[in-house]
Design a protein that fits this description.
By secondary structure, the chain is α/β, with parallel strands linked by helices. The protein has nine helices and four strands; from the N terminus they run βαβαβαβαααααα. The longest helix is centred in the middle third of the chain and has 17 residues, at 86-102.
Length: 211
């Protein structure tokens, strides 16, 4: 067992590189989610969303004594149990984590439907990172014209497809670094996605501090 000084604050298991880059970008902005600066490790499960759901507890078992807390983060879309609610999936994963040695020190976050739901906002940084700055029509209007946005919605109904379509029109190559740039630049204050709120709440419970 590592000494207390050598222990990591947090280990995060995610489903893919896009998610890894997103979480990395967010954790590099601790003040934006009202936590202290923490020492963390992020790993990508080789079997993506189903791997995180089925075997996340096995993957994280070796870190029980070297990390104070753990998170498993995955998309509901593609996890293999899409008919279950987000909460039911999280409870299932957390039960396995608890039994595998983490007790109450670990949590699961299932994004419904997928990661891109966290990154869409009305921030001008979204247009810039997606290569849309200065284009006509503006990105939001284009999303409405293509049926991705309706009414007063901030986030597209098909977030992943909207990102991919916007990048294609902007002639910008798809890259995991885009998710890192968005996570570093876009305001995190107004995202009301339930999974993101749970993610922030857990981190604040474990590492929160007043600014």
């Amino acid at each position: 067992m590592n000494s207390e000084q050598d222990r990591y604050d947090l280990v995060v298991l995610v489903a893919d590189k896009n998610m890894e880059n997103s979480i990395k970008g967010i954790l590099e902005r601790p003040e934006s989610i009202r936590i202290k600066k923490i020492k963390s490790e992020i790993y990508t499960h080789p079997h993506r969303d189903p791997g995180c759901r089925n075997k996340g507890h096995d993957y994280l078992r070796p870190f029980v004594n070297s990390c104070r807390h753990a998170l498993v983060i995955l998309d509901k879309e593609g996890c293999g149990k899409e008919k279950l609610t987000r909460e039911a999936l999280e409870n299932e994963i957390e039960d396995h984590l608890k039994i595998s040695g983490w007790g109450d020190r670990a949590a699961a976050v299932v994004i419904d439907p997928e990661l891109e739901n966290w990154l869409w906002s009305d921030s001008p940084e979204v247009e810039f990172v997606l290569g849309w700055k200065g284009k006509n029509p503006p990105l939001r209007r284009w999303l409405e014209d293509k049926g991705f946005l309706s009414g007063n919605s901030v986030k597209p109904s098909q977030p992943k497809e909207a990102v991919e379509s916007a990048l294609r029109i902007a002639n910008k190559p798809r890259s995991s670094s885009i998710f890192y740039q968005l996570a570093k630049a876009v305001s995190l204050k107004h995202c009301q996605d339930p999974a993101f709120l749970k993610f922030k709440t857990k981190l604040f419970q474990w590492f929160g501090q007043k600014f």
